[in-house]
Structures are given as structure tokens and as C-alpha cells.
Amino acid sequence: MTSEEIQTFKARLEAMRAEIKGDGFHEFKPNRTDDIGRRDEDHQPLNEMSQSIASSRNKTLKKSLGKIERALERIKEDPDDFGLCVECEEPIPPRRLEIMPFAELCVRCQSDLEAGGPSGTRRSLTDYI
To answer: Are the CB atoms for 68 and 13 separated by under 8 Å?
Structure first.
């Protein structure tokens, strides 16, 4: 990968990081209160669902931010290794990096991981075969 391409990916990753940090994490406001300060119990299920959604979004944002930080660290530490799969050290296809500049694995290694390969997890009871 050329130095220009690496700088382009670095700029995209920094922009993605700035966007996530700029938007911030999702906040959840607890139940509304009525005129005398009591919580409105009729809206409790909706509030719990909203809290769960906000929590899930925050977890996803934090995970994405971690991937972006690791990719920027790889560029900083050893730019020649950026764009190489961390498992097999084969080049990650350019199209994959265009879509996900923070990708750490090539398609084959990612598929192995998701299928429950050596570092993956079982997806069903029959995966022990």
C-alpha cells in the first residue's frame, strides 16, 4: 500500500473518530414525573425499551471507536502492516478497506472467526462436530 493510500485511510479514520466523539454517546432520561413529582408507571415499559436501545447503541459506538483507535495505532506504529490481516498477514482487499477502513481481518479469517473457528464461538449445539 502506498504512503498516499495510508494517509487517505488515516484521514478517513480520524474523521470517523471525530464524528463519533462529536456526536457523543446516547443519553437516556428516566421516567417523566407528573405534576406532583411521581414517576409515570404507565410509561415504564417504553422507558425500559428506550434505555435498552440507548445502551445497545452506546456499546456499538464504543466498539467501533475501539476498532478505529486500533487501526490508527497500527498506522502510527507500523504503516507497512496497515491493510494486512492480523491473523494470516495477507493483504485485506482494497474494497473491504474502503468500506471498513478499520478492518483487521481478511474475509477468509473473518468468516472463520464467525463460523466458530479457533478463536470463534459455537453458534449451535451441533457445532462440536
So the answer is: yes
pTM of the model as a whole: 0.69
Q: Alpha-carbon distance 52 to 46, whole Å?
A: 10
Kindly tell me the burial class for residue 59, based on how many C-beta atoms sit within 10 Å of its own C-beta (0-12, 13-18, 19 or more): exposed
DSSP symbol at 20? H
Q: Look at phi and psi of residue 31 and say left if phi exceeds 0, alpha if psi is from -120 to 50, else beta.
A: beta
Residue spans per domain, the chain: 1-80, 83-129
Each residue's pLDDT, cut to its tens digit, for the chain (129 residues) gives 888 999 999 999 999 999 988 877 767 666 555 566 566 666 677 777 877 888 888 898 899 999 999 999 999 999 988 999 999 999 999 999 999 999 999 999 999 888 875 544 555 656 555
Beta bridge partners of 91: 84
Residue 65: name the closest of 11, 18, 114 by CA: 18
In whole angstroms, what is the distance from residue 5 CA to residue 67 CA?
A: 19
